[in-house]
Each structure stands twice: as C-alpha cells, then as structure tokens.
Design a protein that fits this description.
Strand content: 15-25%
Largest sheet: 7 strands, mixed
Oligomer: single chain
Radius of gyration: 21 Å
Shape: elongated
C-alpha cells in the first residue's frame, strides 16, 4: 500500500523519488522523478526552483506514490503518464501502441520535402501509414503539411482507436482516416507516399531487451520475425500496387538493417533515394523511389 506523504514539499517529494530511482539503478532518475512529479502534482522544475517548499496535497501524494511504484517496476515513464510528445504533438498512448521515440522524427524530417513537392505539383499529397500505432508519423506530417491527407492502418483495433483520438486532439481528423488492416490487406487506393515504422526486432533477441521495452511494449509492434525483416518483405513486394506514379516509400529500420532492407527493395525494383541516420549516428530511415 502506498505511503501517504501528507505535508511533503514538492522538492522533498522529488528528492525522495529520485533517491529510490537511483538506488534501483534506473538510467535517468532525475528526469523520471521530475516528469512524474509534474504529471501527478503539476509541479514543474521551475516550481521546484522558485517555490520548493510548496506542499503537495494528500491526493497528489497518493498519485505520485503510485507513479513511483510503477516506475520501480520498470514501467516506462511515458506509459505511466499516458502520453508522449512527438514532433511537437502530445500523443496519447495505450497498451496497444509503441511509445513514439525521438529517433522516428528522422523519418518525418526525411519525407517532408517530398510531401511539399507533391503538394506544389498537384495541390495535395496522399499518405499511407502502415502500422500506425499512435498515429505519430502520419499526424506529424499532417501538422506540417496542411494540404496533405493520411490513411493509417493497424492490425490492432485499440491502436487505431488511439490514433483517431490523437487526430481529434490536434484537429487533424478531417484529413486522417483509419483502417484495420494486416498491412495492405484492406487497402484499396493508391498513394503518393507509403511510410512505415514496422516491427523489426529479431524474435530471438526480444527477451534480451530492456525490461522497459520487453515487458511493456506490444509484441505485435516489436517482433520482426526470425531475421527481423518480415514486414519489409511484405511492404517491398506489395507496395507497387498501392503507389501512384512517382510515389515513394519510406521506412524506419534497425541500426544494422540498412544493407538487408535496401536489398529487399532493390530486388523489387526500387532505388534507394535517401538514407538518414538517427541522433546517435546509426542508420535509421530509408527512402525509396
């Protein structure tokens, strides 16, 4: 049962949580404590600097204690908060979605010039986001390209529900539609851009992943099969039937998959147009034409 810390100052509550996280060996104890305190009590880092003795209420104390307990069980901070910012958009999460990660913003940055080019030529750009999860990639593009439209697919209904909620949250629902589909199974139209951050983890290494990922991320969004390439094979072999003339395909990849994924698309008569590295300098995104 959580201990009620009635009367604790926001600074002391932060320090207590930070110590627990440090003692447990969490990688980012300071950040975790600050984010969870703000979400539980509305107390920002600036608040702790300017009014460190401000007291938290019993209700806030209980909420924060519950958050701390969940984090000590290695539940990711943003799952506890139920949301994560991606490309300037705050996106809701649920158990069927991955947490959008900063590295995936590289994929958005990579395709935006092409999206704007298509809009300049034809007045719009239609996008198909395969395995959309929270809708992060499609919604980020729509937020930057007001004349673009996006269709998002996912096999998991709960993921699609969250993607639609996120579209509504940012008033993008009029240009965003969702289809439950196993990759292209229920897709019938052609698009200017097909984009995806598919599952690409090799099945046998999933048990070796950090507990934050292994125990909390949806397996459907992680497991890429025996060699991590199952989704890429499907996309490379079937995408031509769903691309408009001059259309392109963009995918996120694992750090060591540039050669193997490029080969799959090259064998399907696509040329590698752009390769992008992530914030750590690893191969992260490929663009094919």
């Amino acid at each position: 049962m959580a201990t009620r810390n009635e009367g604790l100052s926001i600074e002391q509550a932060y320090r207590d949580a930070r110590k627990k996280f440090r003692d447990a060996g969490l990688e980012t104890p300071d950040m975790d404590a600050a984010l969870l305190l703000e979400h539980a009590c509305g107390a920002t880092t600036i608040d702790r600097m300017t009014a460190p003795e401000k007291r938290i209420t019993p209700s806030q104390s209980d909420t924060f204690a519950a958050f701390v307990k969940r984090r000590l069980l290695r539940e990711p901070v943003h799952r506890i908060m139920g949301e994560r910012e991606f490309y300037g958009l705050t996106l809701g999460l649920n158990e069927a979605t991955l947490i959008p990660r900063p590295d995936t913003e590289i994929l958005v940055e990579m395709v935006l010039p092409f999206v704007h080019e298509r809009i300049a030529l034809s007045g719009t750009c239609s996008i198909l986001d395969l395995g959309t999860g929270t809708g992060a990639i499609a919604l980020a593009i729509l937020s930057q390209a007001p004349l673009a439209t996006a269709t998002a697919t996912d096999l998991e209904p709960k993921a699609l529900e969250m993607a639609v909620q996120n579209a509504e949250r940012h008033q993008l629902q009029n240009r965003f539609s969702a289809i439950q589909s196993d990759w292209f199974e229920n897709v019938s139209e052609r698009y200017d851009l097909i984009i995806s951050n598919p599952p690409y983890i090799v099945s046998k290494v999933i048990n070796d992943l950090a507990a934050d990922v292994r125990d909390y991320d949806p397996m459907l969004a992680l497991d890429g099969g025996d060699d991590g390439l199952n989704a890429y094979r499907i996309i490379a072999s079937q995408a031509a039937a769903y691309l408009k003339s001059g259309g392109r395909i963009a995918v996120e990849i694992g750090f060591d998959q540039k050669t193997s994924v490029s080969a799959l698309f090259n064998q399907a008569d696509y040329a590698t147009f752009v390769t992008k590295n992530d914030l750590s300098g690893n191969n992260r995104a490929l663009f094919f034409t």
